[in-house]
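FORM 7B: Structural annotation worksheet

SECTION A. Query
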Amino acid sequence: MLQIYNTLSRQKEYFRPLHEGRVGMYVCGPTVYGDAHLGHARPAITFDLLFRYLQFLGYKVRYVRNITDVGHLEHDADEGEDKIAKKARLEQLEPMEVVQYYTNRYHHDMEALNVLPPSIEPHASGHIIEQIAFVQRILDHGYAYISNGSVYMDVEKYAKDFPYGKLSGRNLEDIVTDTRELDGQDEKKHSYDFALWKKAAPEHIMHWPSPWSEGFPGWHMECSTMGTKYLGEEFDIHGGGMDLMFPHHEAEIAQSCAALGHESVHYWMHNNMITIAGKKMGKSYNNFITLQQFFNGDHHLLTKPFSPMTIRFFILMAHYRSTVDFSSEALEAAEKGFARLQEAYTRLQKIQPADKTTVEIGDLRNKCQDAMDDDLNSPMVLQALFDSARAINTIYDQKASISSEDLDELRKVWKDYAIDILGLRLGDEMANDKSQMSNKMSAFNGAVDLLLDIRLDAKRNKDWATSDKIRNNLTELGFQIKDTKDGYEWTL
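SECTION B. Predicted structure
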């Protein structure tokens, strides 16, 4: 049976879904005001791994991953500018233009990493009515108060009836001690109370009517609301990064208990952080590397471009609850490891069966399943596959043989675990990726040739301004252009 580490109980527990054969899973998605970076890739791949394995085990999974497009203020606080509204103001765009642009780019990056799309991907801005109703339930139960048009959670009153801080291991006394009164938050009873609904300042460009004010929902409200809307008042799994444990997930628990009278989530799961030189990678620290920069190598910390599958393999090499410290050297090691795995898979497809098996292939399927059942231990799955790769290479080099039955099972296990569960593109899938890249390069080359053909026409017509503009601009982009008697040559 599958065991997963429940952050709430701080121990591994056997997974028993609320409804036999069905799983409801909610995972916190991105706030879409910038390109996804390696820190975003980790939860996406972690919970994609869980999603894939639950389906492999035969469960029908409803996987909800939200898009935060309103209410997430700077520094994850209750004051300051909305992150998306700020981006829109700086770029002179509508907020939803920013949202659409970065959501599209996030999807593109996830597809490159072979992350499966969720069953439902709700937007916070599309569920304002439901969030208002959820806030009203909390008010009706007496765990919130209205102040100057905003609505705040009364944490002290809530803590008298429910254990506030149980997920993160904090208690209210510690929170009170560690929380200082901040300027501009005097409309709260206590600085540790958090916003359920915020009255919009006149300059705030994202706001909706509510019974309390023209405003917008607090950041934590969207997940409580959309989780229960699509998965029910109780559901199986809630996932996200460890940095969301407090205050975001702690606030979610409080909101659900205050509104519903009970907790919604049975298993809380958190992936650990990606770090650079021991410090969390994130936009707030200005030390992040976007996924596109990894793919094209355009960052001073990178020695070269790295493929999406190298990034996925790098993340799967570590258990999801362990910290991963990034370095370009670590990625190069992952690239070599993935190449060895890919070579073994390719050789496995070319092996011809014999009458009998003369090499020890071990109980690969059980090793892989035991590792996955042990809290998604992807490093141990990879280790089992690498162990079997040695046997595959021995057979491929004709130093041993394998029967048809054993060969079919070996191929099936690699397909099940390396491709379907770990989500690695191997063999034909990798060839398709290379084919797509070849098609992109062909289009790229054609576009450059088209520009230089236009330049040739301009030169023949003595349109030197157009000719020089094309040459100069391409040169600035890194192209070297050489005129020849037959036309031109170019390199990048």
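SECTION C. Observations
Residues 279-421 form a domain with the Isoleucyl-tRNA Synthetase; Domain 1 fold (CATH 1.10.730.10). DSSP finds 16 helices and 16 strands in the chain.

SECTION D. Sign-off
Analyst initials: ____
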